[in-house]
Design a protein that fits this description.
The chain is of the alpha+beta class and 329 residues long. It contains 7 helices and 13 strands.
């Protein structure tokens, strides 16, 4: 019995030693981990600052343009204006095309929801009035604004023009503006909106990494005229043109063409406070009404002239002709 008791004590002592040895090894492992680990995070006024957080902050310093444009139109739009919209879609690789929208009083809320669902930050909405004669273009920055309403005139699509220019689809354009855009604050605002909406973001997945065409925005008679030109180089000298050799490059128009007459600039998205109103804008309905009145006035003048002539002939009769019966048999 005594031998069995002492053997159990030896086994117990050996187990205790093993446990102590294991604890010491665990302590050594934790010490080594602490030595390998980085320094403790520092306390700042903002909060705890860690190395990983600093790395994320450096990642955000590089700006990346994530501009996306929603392009859509109203229902019952004319085929000519629909082709213009498709031409604009082909020129903007960073746009998203959506179905037609019913142009009623609630179009602003509907379009804002569509822009949010599509993940876009801007919108180009082609709206046609009930008479199917006039086209309006809404250029909007969503969801906070501003928004501009234009009357579109002098529309010529690519299919109509049949010009010789041709540039690759998806290539990034160079945007040029006339010096008039820097004269007034509302022109400066429109210039910035054109830069953000029509400028293709760099390194976009659907765009080509070079420039081969130019968008030209010029102001003439308080109207914005849009032109699209291809940068062409002669084939014989295509491989020899160096940087700065602009004399050998020419511009060939591609299309489309259109003219924008600004009506109002709003502070919000599809509405809000009016920031600018064009004092020279005349509604096309008023112009057509004046033309009808002028045409009606011309007809009335002709009728009045005929009645005056008859009254004049009755009041001043001609004298009888002596030789009127000479040639009668």
């Amino acid at each position: 019995m005594f031998i069995f008791f002492f053997s159990m004590l030896d086994i117990k002592d050996s187990m205790v030693k093993k446990r102590k040895h294991g604890e010491s090894s665990e302590v050594d492992a934790t010490v080594k981990k602490d030595e390998i680990a980085t320094e403790r995070p520092k306390r700042t006024l903002v909060g705890w600052k860690d190395g990983r957080i600093e790395q994320k902050e450096t990642d955000f310093t590089t700006f990346r343009n994530k501009e996306k444009v929603l392009v859509t139109c109203s229902r019952r739009i004319n085929y000519r204006y629909r082709h213009l919209m498709l031409n604009v879609v082909s020129l903007l690789p960073h746009c998203k095309k959506d179905n037609k929208v019913e142009s009623k009083e609630s179009k602003g809320a509907t379009l804002n929801e569509l822009v949010e669902l599509k993940g876009c930050s801007s919108c180009l909405f082609f709206e046609q009035c009930r008479k199917h004669k006039d086209l309006y273009l809404w250029m909007v920055k969503c969801p906070s604004g501003p928004s501009v309403k234009f009357l579109v005139n002098a529309v010529h699509t690519m299919e109509e023009l049949k010009l010789t220019g041709n540039h690759l689809k998806g290539s990034r354009p160079i945007l040029t503006f006339s010096s008039n855009f820097d004269k007034s604050p509302h022109w400066k605002l429109l210039k910035e909106m054109f830069l953000q909406i029509f400028g293709t973001p760099k390194d976009h997945r659907k765009s080509k990494p070079y420039h081969d065409h130019v968008f030209v925005f010029s102001i003439v008679d308080d109207h914005i005229w849009f032109r699209n030109y291809q940068i062409s180089v002669p084939h014989s000298e295509a491989d020899k043109v160096d940087r700065g050799g602009l004399d050998k490059m020419t511009l060939v128009e591609v299309g489309p063409r259109f003219c924008l007459n600004p009506i109002k600039i709003f502070g919000g998205s599809f509405g809000g406070p009016t920031l600018y109103e064009n004092p020279f804008y005349v509604s096309p309905n008023q112009i057509r009404a004046l033309e009808k009145r002028q045409k009606a006035g011309k007809f009335a003048k002709k009728v009045k002239a005929k009645t005056r002539r008859k009254m004049h002939e009755l009041s001043n009769p001609l004298e009888p002709d002596e030789f009127a019966d000479m040639w009668k048999e």
